[in-house]
Amino acid sequence: EPEVTQTPSHQVTQMGQEVILRCVPISNHLYFYWYRQILGQKVEFLVSFYNNEISEKSEIFDDQFSVERPDGSNFTLKIRSTKLEDSAMYFCASSGAGVNEKLFFGSGTQLSVL
Amino acid sequence: LAKTTQPISMDSYEGQEVNITCSHNNIATNDYITWYQQFPSQGPRFIIQGYKTKVTNEVASLFIPADRKSSTLSLPRVSLSDTAVYYCLVAMNRDDKIIFGKGTRLHILP
Q1: What is the C-alpha separation between A90 and A39, in angstroms, rounded?
Q2: Which of A109, B35, B67, B89 has its CA at 20 to 30 Å from residue B3's CA atom?
């Protein structure tokens, strides 16, 4: 089965630093998503991306967050100035035709902000 | 977006059939019902999706009554490896986000 790949698997950073989380979606997919999950809590939607622009975003996705698809294969999430509360597992997902097709999730990046 | 309600947790035994019911009273005409499974420290994994009546695949069945205000995920003959969190989600076919609820934590006992 095709896979969504995320790197790094773990990222440790100091509060206030910028981090970039990277994802390689499945090659023929058109819709891309970032979710996060704080330990022991539910999976939270951050943003969806289609046709090189943000389709939807949640209230969590404030000005500190940005997404980019720089080269047609990678899909990145940038947090400009990390806060302690940004510590979470971040999941990238992609789908072929929006939400009525199944979302394929990556294995996640565990972000720890110290 | 339709809100979903499902049990917080369930226990069952190996070899049993497990049914997890989700209510979605304000489901809209164009909404699909999708179930995902999540193991600890892994991303959610698609199990099954349906619009009405019954859908079956190699891992589960999904039963949706005529009014579509609820749905039931059926896992036949569960094993220990089915211990996971199961999420019921409802989304429009042209919407661009899926909101996860708290899910049902299924614990399979030997």
Answers
A1: 11
A2: A109
User: In angstroms, rounded to a whole number, what is the distance separating the alpha carbons of residues A20 and B104?
Assistant: 32
CA distance A38 to chain B (A): 11
Whether residue A103 has pLDDT greater than 60 = yes
Judge: B43–A45 Cβ closer than 8 Å, yes or no.
Answer: no
Q: Determine, for residues B92 and A99 on separate chains, whether the beta-carbon distance falls below 8 Å.
A: yes
User: What span, in angstroms and rounded, lies between the C-alpha atoms of A59 and A44?
Assistant: 10
Residue B94 with chain A: CB contacts under 8 Å: 98, 100
Decide: A108 and A88 in contact? Cβ < 8 Å: no
Chain B interface includes A31 (CB < 8 A): yes
pLDDT in tens, A5-16: 999 999 999 999
- How far apart CA B85 and CA B71 sit, in angstroms, is 17
For the cut 80, the answer to whether the pLDDT of residue A99 exceeds it is no
Buried-exposed string A39-56: b where 16+ CB fall within 10 A, e elsewhere: eeeebbbbbbbeeeeebb
Asked if A103 and B44 come within 8 Å (Cβ–Cβ), the reply is yes
- Residue A65: the pLDDT is 97
Residues in chain B: 110
Whole-number Å distance between alpha carbons of B49 and A8:
31
Instruction: At A77, list the tokens.
Output: 């999430």
* Interface membership of A106 toward B (CB under 8 Å): yes
